[in-house]
Amino acid sequence: MKVVHLTYPIKSRVTTKKLVLALGFFDGVHVGHQHLFSVAKDIAEKKNLPLMVMTFDRHPSEIYANNTNFQYIDTVEEKAEKMAKLGVDYFGVLKFTKEVSQISGQDFVDKVIVALNADTVVAGFDYTYGPKDVANMSHLTAFAKGRFDIVKVPKQTFNGKKIGSTEIRKYITEGKMELVYELLGNHFLMRGTVGHGKRNGHKLGFPTANLVWHEKKVLPKIGVYATKTKVNGKWYESMTSVGYNVTINQERKIYIESNIFDFDENIYDQPIEIKWYKYTRGEIKFDSLDALKKQLEEDQKQIRTYFSENK
């Protein structure tokens, strides 16, 4: 798969061939998105054309609503990795600017879709590409003027509810990681490097890797989780806490700390990844470090049992 960084208006084509163009923001690349890609891939194969997925480099609300605190399920790089595994040929990332936020639906069609040489556009039923009351899927045919085919993918549901990135972000913040897995089709992932903490875990016999993560990632609910942590290319069972370290620290700073089972190496400043499986308990302020240590022993026992029963 080739990643293509685009700027508006698009002045050069990514391929000399026509292409099937899937449009959306696709945060999380959840099972609803995956269904849309499978529809687009089938069309591309039948027409012997490459499949291009196009998204923006940031959520549009960061610009038009000045929502600078928007939190993402995936970084652009993580999104690209998922696209590659799904058989996408080109992943186009359009830089979303103030200018792009102000274009009309017709301009988007003329200067993006047509400029990319689209044979067929595939998008969800609720996709918008400008002012939502006008630049929506109902009006796309009029803007297209017969220059490309349009396939509108209907709403995808799970237990009667729409599968959407907004809902998945909410479930992450509520610690509903098993539901998140069902909707994403994979475990929620956080990446970063191991920072230098206060080594309180070492003193208790539970050394932790202190994750320094991408600041725009949505954070799981405060508490303790069954996780797996990847170090040096290998996944280890682990327990990870998200919280303020209320027993030991007074500062109002969230820490993400992973106690990696059966692992004892110095990995400061090294990259790690954490997959989130199950929320096990909330954060508790203990009266003593001994009480905290006993709870950590119980947490580890419980999480080891969870993984032994959920291979």
Automatic annotation (TrEMBL):
It catalyses: riboflavin + ATP = FMN + ADP + H(+); FMN + ATP + H(+) = FAD + diphosphate. Residues 183-308 form the Riboflavin kinase domain. Its EC number is 2.7.1.26, 2.7.7.2. It comes from Candidatus Lactobacillus pullistercoris. Pathway: Cofactor biosynthesis; FMN biosynthesis; FMN from riboflavin (ATP route): step 1/1; Cofactor biosynthesis; FAD biosynthesis; FAD from FMN: step 1/1. This is Riboflavin biosynthesis protein. Belongs to the ribF family. It holds the Pfam family Flavokinase. InterPro entries: FAD_synthase, Riboflavin_kinase, Riboflavin_kinase_bac, Riboflavin_kinase_bac/euk, Riboflavin_kinase_dom_sf, Rossmann-like_a/b/a_fold.
